[in-house]
Design brief:
With 318 residues, this protein is of the alpha/beta class. It has helices spanning 19-35, 49-58, 84-92, 103-117, 131-137, 150-154, 172-185, 199-214, 227-238, 254-257, 273-286, 307-317; strands at residues 8-13, 39-42, 60-63, 74-77, 96-99, 121-125, 144-147, 162-166, 217-221, 242-246, 262-267, 290-295. The termini are far apart. Bound molecules: iron/sulfur cluster.
């Protein structure tokens, strides 16, 4: 059996790093430059193995809880957000905290707080156990109930005042089905205009949808614990392509490529572009020459670094 050489590689655009991930990774890099190693990071700064390893080599120490950080040390909170309890623990330990929570996650926290203050029962659409969900629920634990599926909506109790919010990295299509069911069962429920799924998740899913229609196989670069990367695999499969999630080119299995003419590549919001380029090189080395990009949406979102970092940088350069 000979080695399959796909005729064509098609890259989804947009793919990879979003503004929130870029900001969070830069935050840790700047914190290391400004404060020196070690800098403690609560949880994985973003859900990508390669990024975490690279920062670890530069002196970041990843911990599961703020309670593991030595008193007075510098600690960065990850892009996924934290509950008020975590901030309180950090204060008790006198930590120099730098919060790298994505502003689009902070927006959901604010919605939760506002609805809770107004006496609403809040339905949070999200995945149990995900860090972002834990952080958001921590804002108003007594007011929030979590639903993951349409079936979960069917077992909800009605309340006089109801509102919904969502995790930022869900499947756009599945979430709209859950919201439709919520509106059907509770016509008085209020919420954001559509959902809280962020621009990056929405755009990457829109791009992989079109990509999958033109490909036999779609390879998604991203880590197993990355919610938005897993959704990309699902969307690709739902749109007619075979699809697999891989950390890097070394995980590509020969049996996946066998007989595949057009191979699509995309990457989750926390996956660096170098990993994509390494995968492209893997195919070029086999003999694939036709490599092009399928641009579906243009993105130009940027977030400012956290205030503490900006201030420290200004002081350092003064
Ligand atoms: S995926 Fe969306 S919510 Fe998450 S860090 Fe990126 S921009 Fe922010």
């Amino acid at each position: 059996m000979g080695t399959t050489v796909p005729e064509k590689i098609l890259l989804a655009a947009p793919r990879g790093y979003c503004a929130g991930v870029d900001r969070a990774v830069q935050t840790v890099q700047h914190a290391l430059e400004l404060h020196g190693a070690p800098v403690y990071v609560r949880k994985e700064i973003v859900h990508n193995k390669h990024v975490v390893e690279t920062l670890r080599e530069r002196g970041a120490i990843f911990v599961d809880s703020e309670t593991e950080v030595p008193e007075g040390a510098t600690a960065v909170f990850s892009a996924h957000g934290v509950s008020p309890e975590v901030h309180a623990n950090a204060e008790t330990r006198n930590l120099n905290t730098i919060d790298a929570t994505c502003p689009l996650v902070t927006k959901v926290h604010r919605e939760a707080l506002k609805f809770a203050a107004e006496g609403y029962t809040i339905v949070l659409i999200g995945h149990a156990g995900h860090e972002e969900v834990e952080g958001t629920m921590g804002e108003a634990p007594d007011s929030i109930v979590l639903v993951e599926t349409v079936e979960d909506v069917d077992s909800l109790q009605a309340a006089e005042k109801m509102a919904y919010i969502s995790q930022t990295t869900l499947s756009v299509d599945e979430t709209s089905a859950v919201i439709a069911r919520l509106r059907e069962r509770f016509p008085h429920i209020i919420g954001p205009r559509t959902d809280d799924i962020c621009y990056a998740t929405t755009n990457r899913q829109a791009a992989v949808k079109q990509l999958a229609e033109q490909c036999d196989l779609v390879l998604v670069i991203g880590s197993k614990n990355s919610s938005n990367s897993n959704r990309l695999v699902e969307v690709a499969r739902e749109n007619g392509a075979q699809s697999h999630l891989i950390d890097n080119e070394n995980q590509v299995q020969e049996s996946w490529i066998e007989g595949m003419r057009v191979v699509g590549i995309t990457s989750g919001a926390s996956a660096p572009e170098t990993l994509v380029q390494n995968l492209v090189e893997f195919f070029r080395a086999r003999g694939t020459q036709d490599v092009s990009e399928l641009q579906v949406v243009q993105e130009d979102v940027r977030f400012m670094l956290p205030k503490k970092i900006r201030q420290a940088m200004a002081t350092a350069s003064a």
